[in-house]
Amino acid sequence: MRGRSTVPPRIAARAQSPPPKSPNATVFRPSVPAKPEPDQTMFATYRPILSLLRGTAFLLAASGLHGLLLPLRGQLEGFSTASLGLMGTAWAGGFVTGCFFAPRIVRRAGHVRAFGAFAASGAIVALLTGLIIDEYVWILLRAFTGFTMAGAFMVIESWLNEKATNENRGTVFGLYMMVTYASIMGGQMIVAGGDVKSASLFMITGILFCLSLIPTAVSSASHPKPLQDVSLDVKGLYANSPVSAVACVLIGIANGAWGTLGAVYGARIGISTAEIALMMSLVVVAGAAMQLPAGRMSDKTDRRFVLAGAAFGAALFALLIFLFEPRSGVFVIVFTAAYGAFAYTLYSIAVAHANDHARSEDFVKVSGGLLLLYGFGTMIGPLLAAALMGWMRPEGLFLATAFAHLCLAGYTLLRISRRAPVPIGDRDAFKTQPADRSVTPEALRLDPRRKAEADG
User: Fold this and answer.
1) Phi, psi (5° rounding) for residue 231?
2) Torsion over CA: 109, 174, 382, 412 (sign)
3) What is the rounded distance in angstroms from the CA atom of residue 327 to the CA atom of residue 271?
């Protein structure tokens, strides 16, 4: 019949089916690029940053260990209170000086070689302090340490900023702050497991400094742009926000006094080395934990009320320690942690208040200037606290901090009556800020609030 196939069905099926495959035949298929897993993409994005953060962790651990070891060893060696205070002043002075002059060294030598010189210098100084036990030599060496730390931190912070984008800047900044607090605390806790009287902890400090060299030395990432010069406009900062300018100096006085002589206070009242290390760490941790609730409160009202309230809270706990003279390690740790919860929130609120009055594109300029004013305050605080501790008793340290905090609270309340607050709708949301001397103005370029400036 027409239209019907004369081929049997089985034969037709065989004709349409493909020939059997040979065992040795190679089948070619078009390649389809596999989509990368989200976790792999994220890891590839942050891998260069994580490498730099490892170097940062070693550097901060070395700084935290050395900063706690020196006052404890100096106390055992019978160094005077004035000399111990001068070590803190020398460190702060070297650090602020480094913020101004380190960019020139980096521009001349390049980031990798400059960082190598800074970290190696830190290791040399740490080993020298273990070899030469002399209070005057230590004061001089602390100034060199402050300078080299400023340069090393500026290199790493500029490198991190180069790798950050406007999309992940907040994540990078948050990781950097986490590493900062965890590494400083880890370095301080090493003291609890070592012998302050021996040279071993000085050697460990030198090793940590050398370990910080490795990630940047082997990194294949492109070098960051040259560091920008740091400038300070005191008149402009005061005109923008008198409260913030004065507050940063006073906060620096209080935090500088505690950071330098807190360990000396613990040793003189007789608590153990492990308790001293825990006390010094928990003060900063409590302050970091308290920043967010205090900041959220300041977003809903006049920030100056929160600033004055936190300053009164810090002064209250400082005066309680001064009056009751606790000697139990547990009570000392609890009271100092409560003190730190108030004292270490003040800087963030002061900076947020200044940025409420400033233009968004001036964030780095304003915040960097306030950070330098804070640094100048840390030069004064150790001298004031050392004088009171030598004249009175170990609790004189808290009398010095209470004086600074009460001055801050009083001046803030005075300014509330002189200037209206910024409307809540015109403010930026509160962001935490590290109130620590190991942060340079270069770190502010990592802050998410710089996005407006970068976009502009």
Assistant:
1) -130, 160
2) positive
3) 7
